[in-house]
Structures are given as structure tokens and as C-alpha cells.
Amino acid sequence: MTCDLKSLIRTVPDFPVPGVLFRDVTTLISHPTGFAAAIDHLATRAQASGATLIAGMEARGFIFGAAAAARAQLGFLPVRKPGKLPVPTLGVDYDLEYGTDRLEIDPTAIAPGQRVAIVDDLIATGGTALAAAQLLREAGAVVTHAFFVIDLPDLAGAQRLRNAGLVVDALMDFPGH
Questions:
Q1: Active-site positions?
Q2: What residues form the membrane-spanning segments (predicted)?
């Protein structure tokens, strides 16, 4: 299964900058059987983790996270970019390779002690997932697992998450970056 799903990921050279091999999940998402298999994988792992809520980061984390939450019959919490939520938010700023960014959530969407799993399309350096875990924990969630479709192990993001106390699982990995 993994080998077949891996073939559904399009590699785009030199995007967004020269030398980068961009792993494009839109070809997986548009393949009904492949997308369903990826969602089944994520949903099964999230259920097994004991999570009652899946948090997905904007934007592709919404696609995979919401679908996995629905399949697993769990709730879904969108982790948004700034200014997108119509209620008072809890936010965290974090470093990117070339600057900073911010994530926000509605803190009333999480019950104290609620078990939340993070789901996203890809783990590279881990900055966004680490920020999401920090934000969710500040809101009172218990965050122990993060699930991804793709891991780029050469960028060591999964190891950064493990060092922060998260169990990390990815459906497939691609060497290089």
C-alpha cells in the first residue's frame, strides 16, 4: 500500500526555490482510492492514540485532519493563520526558515485535559507542528501524537517533535528536501 501511495505524490523540482524538491499532495488528494487509504491510515492512528479531537494546521492539515476526524468519528479543530477566527483566540508566534509566522485557535473548543492528535500533510523542519503542539498544550490539551502523510527525514522535523515528547507517525517518507 505505502509504495502505491508514494507513487501518487508528485515531485516538483525547484519549487519554491532552486534546489528544493517539492512533494505535492494534490495528486494524492485527487486520487479517490489513494486519498481514502491515506485517510484510513491517519484515522486509525488517531483513534489508537486515544485522541478525542484532531487538530489540523492551515491549509492542507485541514484537508487531511478533517477527513481523518470524520472517518474516526472524532472532532476537528482548525489551527488557523492570524485573523481568521471570529472569536477571541489564543496564539503563538514561531520561527520559520526565513522569518516568523503565527498560529491561532479558539481556546473554548478544547476541554481541559482533552486528548488531541495533530494531523498534517507533511513534516519537514517541524516548526509548524511544534508551534501547534505548544498552542494546544497552552489551551489545556494533552498532545502526545502527531500524524503526517509525508516525512522529509533529512530535515529532522520528526526528531524535533520526538524531542518535544510527541510520538510521530508518517505514512511515507522521501529522502532529501
A1: 60, 97
A2: none
Q: What local confidence, expressed as pLDDT, does residue 169 receive?
A: 98
The Cα 72–Cα 82 span in angstroms is 28
Helix (H) or strand (E) holding 62: helix 60-72
Separation CA 47–CA 7 (nearest Å): 26
Extract the C-alpha cell encoding 97: 526558515
| Strands (DSSP E) found in 4-141 | 10-13, 21-24, 53-57, 75-79, 90-96, 99-105, 115-123
Within 8 A by CB and 6+ apart from 148, the residues are: 119, 120, 121, 122, 123, 158, 168, 169, 170, 171
99-128: per-residue pLDDT in tens?
A: 789 999 999 999 999 999 999 999 999 999
Domains identified in the chain and CATH numbers: 2-173 (3.40.50.2020)
